[in-house]
From TrEMBL:
Protein name per UniProt: short-chain-enoyl-CoA hydratase
Subunit structure, as described in the record: Homotetramer.
Keyword field: Lyase
EC numbers, comma separated: 4.2.1.150
InterPro entries: ClpP/crotonase-like_dom_sf, Enoyl-CoA_hyd/isom_CS, Enoyl-CoA_hydra/iso, Enoyl-CoA_hydra_C
Record-stated family: Belongs to the enoyl-CoA hydratase/isomerase family.
Pathway: Lipid metabolism; butanoate metabolism
Gene Ontology MF terms: 3-hydroxyacyl-CoA dehydratase activity
Reactions that this protein is recorded to catalyse: a short-chain (3S)-3-hydroxyacyl-CoA = a short-chain (2E)-enoyl-CoA + H2O
Enzyme class (EC, first level): lyase
GO biological process: fatty acid beta-oxidation
Taxonomic source organism: Proteiniborus ethanoligenes
Length: 259
């Protein structure tokens, strides 16, 4: 598939997906969102891709939903646009494969919401985070109220959303919004290094672990533990489990085959 607003590039078992609309700071309009949806399906289906890294071209990760497109929407159209983003970000979040956001610059509004839909966030020192929507007279609309609260707690989420403050990468790390901050020039290599490390493990085990965390966190702990127990059991039906444990006993490196 030829994308107008995305660049997909594979490096071994890792796929970089870069939002490529730098003249508008990678703002998400309907076309970008629709392409993102297609790309997520493409990456999920590609047997050779184990890990997805999302980043942005130019000085922004994503500076939000496209304000120019949103400006003239009526209430019904805005709700439809919100639903589109919510569905696509949820699809990203629930991908079987792990997703790393390599946040290179502004991650504002819909951009912060996109980053929060990834499993892991690595930020360059120049990255900036915020949910500035109330300054435009709107609420967050791609599930920012939900994911930010879950990531940093309701008090900090309310402060950030009510004040529309833009925070630095280091502050985002301090409050638990990003996993780590690295020098700007090391951002993509650090994300790739982490992607390669994940890709070297048993992929079914990685995917089951992701599913257990994502499904378990949304339920009570008893149900969550049941989900973990069942997926743990399922690992023992995989060749990767036999290989992983045999390699340990034989004191050699495992050769996982995604089986
Ligand atoms: N939408 C459309 N265009 C944008 C956006 C955006 N979100 N952000 C930047 N641009 C455009 C600018 O208009 C400008 O275009 P042009 O060159 O044609 O004038 C170009 O990108 C470069 O931007 P700036 O000149 O403003 O660059 P600066 O470095 O001076 O400033 C900022 C960078 C601070 C990031 C600034 O661009 C800014 O404040 N952008 C908007 C940030 C924002 O408010 N984001 C939240 C948007 S709302 C949102 O995401 C809600 C998500 C859910 C909605 C669903 C419900 C319907």
């Amino acid at each position: 598939m030829e994308y107008k607003n995305l660049i997909l590039k594979k490096e071994g078992n890792v796929c970089f997906l870069s939002i490529n609309r730098p003249n508008a700071l990678n703002a998400l309009n309907t076309q970008v969102l629709e392409e993102l949806s297609i790309a997520i399906d493409e990456v999920e289906k590609d047997q050779d891709v184990y890990v997805l890294i999302i980043t942005g071209e130019g000085k922004a990760f994503v500076a939000g939903a496209d304000i120019v497109e949103m400006k003239e929407k009526n209430a019904a159209e805005a709700r439809t646009f919100s639903q589109l983003g919510i569905e696509i970000f949820r699809k990203l979040e629930l991908m079987e494969k792990p997703v790393i956001a390599a946040v290179n610059g502004f991650a504002l509004g819909g951009g912060c919401e996109l980053a929060m839909s990834a499993d892991i966030r690595i930020a360059g020192e120049k990255a900036k985070f915020g949910q500035p929507e109330v300054g435009l007279g709107i609420t967050p609309g791609f599930a920012g109220t939900q994911r930010l609260s879950r990531l940093v707690g309701t008090a900090k989420a309310k402060e950030l959303i009510f004040t529309a403050d833009i925070i630095s990468a280091h502050e985002a790390e301090r409050i638990g919004l990003v996993n780590k901050v690295v020098p700007q020039e090391e951002l993509l290599s650090t994300a790739l290094e982490m992607g390669n490390k994940i890709a070297s493990k048993g992929q079914l085990a990685v995917r089951y672990s992701k599913a257990a965390i994502n499904r378990g966190i949304e339920t009570d702990i008893e149900t969550g533990m049941t989900i973990e127990r069942d997926l743990f059991g399922l690992c023992f039906a995989t060749e990767d489990q036999k290989e992983g444990m045999s390699a340990f006993v034989e004191k050699r490196a495992p050769e996982f085959k995604l089986k």
